[in-house]
């Protein structure tokens, strides 16, 4: 049976799982939910995720939610191509970066999005500081060795911030535009490794790195 992938447009956490599924070429069925229609509160989805959030998967009767846990499950289910390094130290760094992104970058992202949603003045300071911290840690094309779950975790958040920032005068973008391995270069490298429209990108994500 096919794996069912529950998602909603606008969720960078769902986008993370989609990138991992496509990277591993795991067959799946799209299960699009609508925030506005209240699909996440309906009994059918609550049986999949009682916390009523996306993403979630149902793999032949085995439901699982929380995007980081889903990526770990997909890695165990189908080890190649890899989401995590086989090197124990590099893998530990990738897992650390995932937790940092979920704890710190996500907090700054939510702060920015709340300001936009509530039509308040945008304080881009926390986001600029967070981008500068990540940028200073970059040493290659990707966050930790080869393209990994760490990149798939941070990229959707960064793309969403960039999309929001282009609509505001105080843009929280990179401070080192000419860095050989700076923030923009990392985003470009990761974007180039995304699946294209032929793999389903045109359904709900755009090629520019923003969710539609």
Q: Explain this structure to me?
A:
- The chain has 212 residues and is α+β, with helices and mostly antiparallel strands.
- Helix content is 48%, strand content 8%.
- It has 8 helices and 4 strands; from the N terminus they run E-H-E-H-E-E-H-H-H-H-H-H.
- The longest helix is centred in the middle third of the chain and has 30 residues, at 88-117.
- The chain is globular and about 45 Å long.
- It starts with a strand and ends in an 8-residue tail after the last helix.
- Residues 174-180 and 195-212 have low confidence and may be disordered.
Please tag this protein with its features:
2 domains; 212 residues; Glutathione S-transferase Yfyf (Class Pi), Chain A, domain 2; globular; Glutaredoxin; 4-stranded mixed β-sheet; alpha+beta; single chain; 48% helix; disordered C terminus; 8 helices
Helix run count: 8
Structural class call reads: alpha+beta
Poorly predicted regions: 174-180, 195-212
- Secondary-structure element string: EHEHEEHHHHHH
Report how far apart the termini are: 29 Å
How do the helices and strands line up, and which of them pair or pack?
Layout: E1 3-7, H1 12-24, E2 28-32, H2 43-46, E3 56-59, E4 62-65, H3 67-77, H4 88-117, H5 125-137, H6 149-165, H7 183-192, H8 201-204
Parallel strand pairs: 1-2
Antiparallel strand pairs: 1-3, 3-4
